[in-house]
Amino acid sequence: MNFTKIRSFYEKYIEINDQMWSELESCLTVKTLIKGEVFIKEGERCDYVSFVEKGMLRMYYLNEGKEVSAAFFFPGIYISVYDSFITRAVSRVYVDALTDTTIINLDYDSVQMLYRKNPAFERFGRLIAEAILISINKRMMSFMLDTPEIRYLNLINERPKVIQNIPQYMIASYLGVTPEGLSRIKKRIHKAAKN
Amino acid sequence: MNFTKIRSFYEKYIEINDQMWSELESCLTVKTLIKGEVFIKEGERCDYVSFVEKGMLRMYYLNEGKEVSAAFFFPGIYISVYDSFITRAVSRVYVDALTDTTIINLDYDSVQMLYRKNPAFERFGRLIAEAILISINKRMMSFMLDTPEIRYLNLINERPKVIQNIPQYMIASYLGVTPEGLSRIKKRIHKAAKN
Questions:
Q1: pLDDT digits over B108-150, tens only?
Q2: Which residue of B has its CA nearest to A89?
Q3: What are phi and psi of B32, to 5 degrees?
Q4: CB < 8 Å from A in window 33-72 of B
Q5: Chain B touched by A140 (CB under 8 Å)
Q6: Which residues of B touch A82 (CB under 8 A)?
Q7: Global ipTM
Q8: Which residues from A are below 8 Å from B129, CB to CB?
């Protein structure tokens, strides 16, 4: 497989010379998942940061038997149960593939080795942690301050891929509403748009 | 002022030799806040990471005129509106002092200078971002999965200082309930403990 997309991803954050790239590239492994396959289970440790090459993944909690969607991942971004990856504690969430999916994995020990070898990788680690922090913080803030209707409108504006690709019941739990609640929100918005 | 507590704080994450410490120490400035004083307002940029030396601070949102508590800070930890600090965008939150408070500030430019000068500071930056990420993620997860009652019980077990020092109405909004809702929760817990 050609890993140039991953090099480009890193180069958004740091400069990568050929030696650094060859060190990084030698640690990458490819994994394919079929539709519905679970990549990480609750109670397992997350040993990878993974780059989504193709397909779609979902992160979700199982809460009293009900799936609660926490995040959706599309090609071009990183996915990891990052709290488990960092602390080495077991995951509280599941990650599964919503379609046939290809991810490229970088394992925990390689990440630590790269951090030690080159301060630029350490910087990348800081910038990625900061980016994830900002994204979680934004979602947290929205849960504290916004109505489900505002959260849905933000999703339409900011993450059209989620609206286009993800089943309604998964979007509902992601927004913290029931599927019926989401239907009502959509009707209200549709009505308001017509007036 | 004696900055040894800050040195100890850094040394929990990285090794600090005397030269590094003198570089860091020369960037620190002390700020005192009187009870009720606002340190950061919504719409201002957060230019500091601050170490709480003495006192107590609160971070809160103003949502349709109502204060919604987001976090509480006690001596020995860092406080920053970190998303604003990182991205250089304006803050969505307020930070104020709940008692007479002393903080020690490290400004944005100094932090960036330290990152460039020494990879160990870069590592510190990564580890701090990861620690903040884990803490926000934990709170986010609790908001998605736990009842307010469970959130309150977790607060008792994990953050007794909040229970002991923070007014009830601030704890209520922190948990996402009304003050009356919090009273009911406390009565239920008290009753359950007696049985």
A1: 999 999 999 999 999 999 999 999 999 999 999 998 889 999 9
A2: B134
A3: -110, 145
A4: 61, 63, 68, 70
A5: yes
A6: 130, 133, 137
A7: 0.92
A8: 126, 129-130, 133
